[in-house]
């Protein structure tokens, strides 16, 4: 049996309201980029 699944990560935006020069998903939170938190949650 396969445990494969698919996910679409909607990742857009510059993060200007977060006062960051980085895209939103690269902005650090608790020492890791937001994208890392998102991928670990999958």
Describe this structure in words.
With about 40 residues, the chain is of the alpha+beta class. The chain is about 20% helix and about 10% strand. It has one helix and two strands. The protein has one helix spanning about 35-40, and strands at about 30, 30-35. Strands 1-2 form a two-stranded antiparallel sheet. The two termini are about 20 Å apart. The model has no long low-confidence stretch (mean pLDDT about 85).
Rounded Rg: 13 Å
Number of strands: 2
User: What's the tally of helices?
Assistant: 1
Report strand order across the widest sheet.
Answer: 1-2
Largest sheet, in brief, is: 2 strands, antiparallel
Strand/helix succession: EEH
> What is the approximate shape?
elongated
How confident is the prediction overall: mean pLDDT? 86
Summarize this structure as a short list of keywords or feature phrases.
single chain, 42 residues, alpha+beta, two-stranded antiparallel ribbon, 1 helix, 2 strands, 10% strand, elongated
Give a summary of the structure in a few sentences.
This protein is an alpha+beta fold. The chain has one helix at residues 34-41, and strands at residues 28-29, 32-33. The chain is 19% helix and 10% strand.
């Amino acid at each position: 049996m396969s445990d494969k699944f698919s996910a679409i990560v909607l990742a857009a935006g510059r993060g200007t309201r977060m006062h960051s020069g980085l895209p939103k998903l690269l902005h650090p939170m608790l020492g890791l980029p937001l994208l890392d938190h998102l991928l670990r949650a999958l």
